């Protein structure tokens, strides 16, 4: 039987992404789980950021950001980054993260995160307090030891071991095991029907 | 060392969400991993749907959809639903899923998915072939046996066992184990610094 919880912001699994804003010399980080890919050609993702956040100001000013996927063992750092404002603290220093230069934009990526996406803001849409900010992905960085070849398909998700966030429930989880390749198991059903 | 993969649509973990469109009498389903929460008050999520899809037509016509999170053991059904068009097939019948009436909209939810979000389209933004469609969540349904109390925080994510999709890598994964509550482990860092 279904229970009704009212209109809630419940969605999982989602990343606990670290969004870097600002410049290489003065970068800031926020934890953002309101993130989703929205388009493929070109690849564009959207993040939902509240207009009261310091990072909102920085994104508005520089029109760029990086999205960084942290590994599960950085959950304390991720949690801390979501607790304090970059107006008051240098969060890179606080958690001991290292900014690395991006290839196409001024805003750095985070060395300690195995997957990093450089984004240029291409659009935005004000919703209520939050604004959906659309970033075109200009470059994708991955730790060399997390990939067995040169193709994106060669990424070993088990080695990336991304931190998972369960919104509303308020919990961090790890990833489990590989179940299947995609575009294969559905063929069994398709072949049985057609 | 970082490797560069070029501009790629790599983001994980993300849900392999099942989006239902159309009416209770004639519903359709598509598999959509381009999904993200964007706002809290009111809760609004965005999905990226290609304008060539049959579901795009249906969303345009009815201005509503439901987002349904499938459990890991339905990965074959999820994969199949991403393979064929609702123009040609009744995918509810093909995979043996049951539509359930929504509380606020015409489009049904999927009985076999433990989490279901009823959405009314409140905005959209054309990107390239894909359009980001914003849905305000009007009601949240959850299987009663996946929740220990009446609060959203009582959801047992292990019992939900949501299917995880790794875009670009093209793999389905399961969820692992609970690492921590949020807004707690960061306090240790905060208290050490301030």
Topology:
The structure is a homodimer of 194-residue chains.
Chain A (H helix, E strand, L loop, with lengths): L1 E3 L9 E2 L1 E6 L4 E6 L2 E5 L4 E7 L3 H9 L1 E6 L5 H7 L9 H5 L3 E2 L8 E2 L4 E12 L3 E14 L13 H4 L3 E3 L4 E11 L3 H9 L1
Descriptive overview:
2 copies of one chain form a homodimer. Chain A has helices at residues 54-62, 75-81, 91-95, 157-160, 185-193, and strands at 2-4, 14-15, 17-22, 27-32, 35-39, 44-50, 64-69, 99-100, 109-110, 115-126, 130-143, 164-166, 171-181. In chain A, a hairpin with a 4-residue loop joins strand 12 and strand 13. The two termini of chain A are 33 Å apart. The model of chain A has no long low-confidence stretch (mean pLDDT 96). In chain A, strands 4-3-7-10-11-6-5 form a 7-stranded antiparallel beta sheet. With 194 residues, chain A is α+β, with helices and mostly antiparallel strands. Chains A and B meet through strand 1, strand 2, strand 5, strand 6 and helix 2 of A and strand 1, strand 2, strand 5, strand 6 and helix 2 of B.
Q: By helix and strand content of chain A, what is the structural category?
A: alpha+beta
Radius of gyration of chain A: 18 Å
Helix content of chain A: 10-25%
Number of strands of chain A: 13
- Quaternary structure state of the chains depicted: homodimer
* Share of residues in strands of chain A: 35-45%
User: What's the shape of chain A?
Assistant: globular
* Parts with pLDDT < 50 across at least 5 consecutive residues of chain A: none
Q: Largest interface: which pair?
A: A-B, 107 and 107 residues
Mean pLDDT across residues of chain A: 96
Main sheet overview of chain A:
7 strands, antiparallel
């Amino acid at each position: 039987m279904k229970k009704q919880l009212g209109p809630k912001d419940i969605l999982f699994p989602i990343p606990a992404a670290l969004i870097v804003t600002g410049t290489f010399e003065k970068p800031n980080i926020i934890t953002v789980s309101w993130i989703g890919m929205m388009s493929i050609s070109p690849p564009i993702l959207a993040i939902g950021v509240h207009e009261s956040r310091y990072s909102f100001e920085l994104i508005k000013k520089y029109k760029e950001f990086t999205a960084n996927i942290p590994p599960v063992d950085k959950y304390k750092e991720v949690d801390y980054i979501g607790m304090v404002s970059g107006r008051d603290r240098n969060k890179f220093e606080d958690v001991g993260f290292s900014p690395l230069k991006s290839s196409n934009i001024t805003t750095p990526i985070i060395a300690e995160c195995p997957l990093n996406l450089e984004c240029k803001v291409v659009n935005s849409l004000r919703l209520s307090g939050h604004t959906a900010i659309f970033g075109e992905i200009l470059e994708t960085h991955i730790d060399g030891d997390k990939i067995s070849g040169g193709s994106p398909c060669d990424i070993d998700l088990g080695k990336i071991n991304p931190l998972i966030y369960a919104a509303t429930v308020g919990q961090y989880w790890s990833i489990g095991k590989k179940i299947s390749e995609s575009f294969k198991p559905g063929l069994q059903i398709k072949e049985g029907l057609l």
